[in-house]
Amino acid sequence: MRKDFERCYVTAHGSVAVLTMNHPEVMNAASVKMIHGMIAAIDYIEKPDSGFRAIVLTGEGRGFCSGANLSEVPEEGASSGGVGSALETSYHPFLRRLRDLKMPLVTAVNGAAAGVGMSIALMGDITLAARTAYFLQAFARIGLVPDGGSTWLLPRLVGLARAKELSMLAEKLPAETALSWGLINRVYDDAALIDEALALAKKLSEGPTQSLATIRRLYWESPHNSFEVQIDLERQSQQRAGKTEDFLEGVTAFLQKRPAKFKGK
């Protein structure tokens, strides 16, 4: 089953939703139209009756996302007040939606992930890449500065020195190097990428959904918190997790020495 939105679409694979950016003519450059389409797609995926419990985010064709759609910047900037305004009104709400998802997110980087496309790729809880994929902080090439959360994400993922190198030199980072730097999780042959992403997302979708959503939130909040604040947040979260049906099922399955059958409740 496929459901189309503005410059993207969702396909259902059991409890896994695959959200595909769909503007291959420009290697899925992220226009405001596409961003709004993806927000609508996430609304659809997150409906309580959708049955989805994990998401794979990827791109149509030979690119993941080549950055902002520069050919549409003048048109969009005229009505929105420029590039900075578009970030505030469109791109940032989308990135926050990815951060606040109630289910795991796997990003499958099937080609170039440049500019804000690199930021989108790194929003995944687990980021997979095709062997020929690459990452590029392209902003300095056109006289802009990193956005999409790049200056927050990159130092935490690869350290300050490498983050500044990527942003100031604007050189391509091959997938294998990104893996060795700890920027991403796994690299696969191009033809195997989407199947591997689906298999991983399926495994996550069969897990304790509420627990996984809380794990996501704990890690997103941890950089802002002191140790004392964080362990108290863990205590509060554990209190809630301990009241779920999945916790009862997990303990029962452990005692009975069988695989747990989580329902996401």
* Beta-strand segment tally: 11
CATH architecture label of the largest domain = Alpha-Beta Complex
The number of helical runs is 11
**Fraction of residues in helix:** 40-55%
Q: Based on Cα principal axes, name the global outline.
A: globular
CATH class of the largest domain: Alpha Beta
- Please mark out the parts with pLDDT under 50 across 5 or more consecutive residues, or reply none: none
CATH topology of the largest domain, what is it called?
Answer: 2-enoyl-CoA Hydratase, Chain A, domain 1
Mean pLDDT: 93
CATH superfamily of the largest domain: 2-enoyl-CoA Hydratase, Chain A, domain 1
Number of domains: 2
In whole angstroms, the N-to-C terminal distance is 25 Å
| Beta-strand content bin | 15-25%
Structural class: alpha/beta
Spatially, the strands of the biggest sheet line up as 1-2-3-4-6-8-11
List key phrases describing it.
alpha/beta, 2-enoyl-CoA Hydratase, Chain A, domain 1, globular, 2 domains, seven-stranded mixed β-sheet, single chain
Describe the structure.
The chain is built from eleven helices and eleven strands. The chain is α/β, with parallel strands linked by helices. The chain folds into two domains: 2-205, 2-enoyl-CoA Hydratase, Chain A, domain 1 (Alpha-Beta Complex); 209-255. Strand 2 (8-13) and strand 3 form a beta hairpin. Helix 1 (32-45) packs parallel to helix 3 (83-99). The longest helix has 17 residues, at 83-99. The chain starts with a strand and ends in a 10-residue tail after the last helix. The relative contact order is 0.11.
